[in-house]
Amino acid sequence: MTPRCRGTLTRVPPLNPGNQQPRDLSSADEAWRANAGRAAGTVLFFDFDGTLAPVGDDPTAVQPAPRVLTAIEALAPLVRRIAIVSARPVDFLRDRLGGLAGVDLYGLYGLEHSHSGGDTVTEPAALPWVPTMAELAELARAELPAGTLVEFKRLSVALHWRTAPQLGEAVREWGQAQADRLGLRVQGGRMVLELKPPVDRDKGMVIGEAIQDADAAWYFGDDVSDIKAFAALRARATAEPSFFGMCVAVANPETGQEVADAADLTIDSPAALGDFLTRAAQHLG
């Protein structure tokens, strides 16, 4: 059984994709104390679904967990930069964050971005795929069995079966067949399969670029796509030992163990993350 420390944090064995030695950090407070001297050079990255917000049956209705946005607002002036890196479109993130100032948004795995409330910029190589994605969404609605939720995101299509778990295999097979037919990329997740353009952009690439001039960075995520972000932090720490990187998993019953195995620390839930970040602001302030 994985040992638990006081509070909402669990210590787990890291995967260490960059061959970095595991950190001997037994509590949330110890982790933040280790980072405190570098606060002005620290970047905090957050996934949205399953991390800042609990996953729900209707992906269009989810909202951030209590205290999360207040805690991020308190942290923003204490660190160099805060960014949300999500599979959601930037417009969705902007709406759910309620006008939170000074936060960078990376949507659709980095195919879109907006810095500090600026305009949304789309990766040029992805734009020609918009019509293909629209047609794919319509085809999915026509061909997939009832109970499948088709989420059209302009530059990607997500196929959810959370309310009908028995459809998982059929949806995955259909999605893979369409990806092969159209030359798309497939991203699996928590009872969802996402089809994306064949453009070299993912969370790991976003993080790798964003931390080039940072002294420290934390990444908070819950799903398998976040493991690439963890790897980017570890690669930077391997190349530059003075860099302080922390990979934090948010527990879930579906992909949680795989993500936790790749992390330094695990938080119990999005709700617990709000408390964790509130304590972080006290340490860094």
UniProtKB/TrEMBL annotation:
Checking Pfam families in the record gives: Trehalose_PPase
Record key words, sorted: Hydrolase, Magnesium, Metal-binding
Question: What reaction does this enzyme carry out catalytically?
Answer: alpha,alpha-trehalose 6-phosphate + H2O = alpha,alpha-trehalose + phosphate
Enzyme Commission identifier(s): 3.1.3.12
- Taking the record's annotation, the residue ranges forming a coiled coil are none
Q: Which GO terms describe its molecular function?
A: metal ion binding; trehalose-phosphatase activity
Segments of this protein annotated with the region Disordered? 1-27
Entry annotated with the keyword Metal-binding = yes
Q: Which cofactor does it need?
A: Mg(2+)
- What's the family? Belongs to the trehalose phosphatase family.
Described by its record, this protein's role is as follows:
Removes the phosphate from trehalose 6-phosphate to produce free trehalose.
Tell me the protein's name.
Answer: Trehalose 6-phosphate phosphatase
Q: Which organism is it from?
A: Micromonospora avicenniae
Phylogenetic placement of the source organism: Bacteria, Bacillati, Actinomycetota, Actinomycetes, Micromonosporales
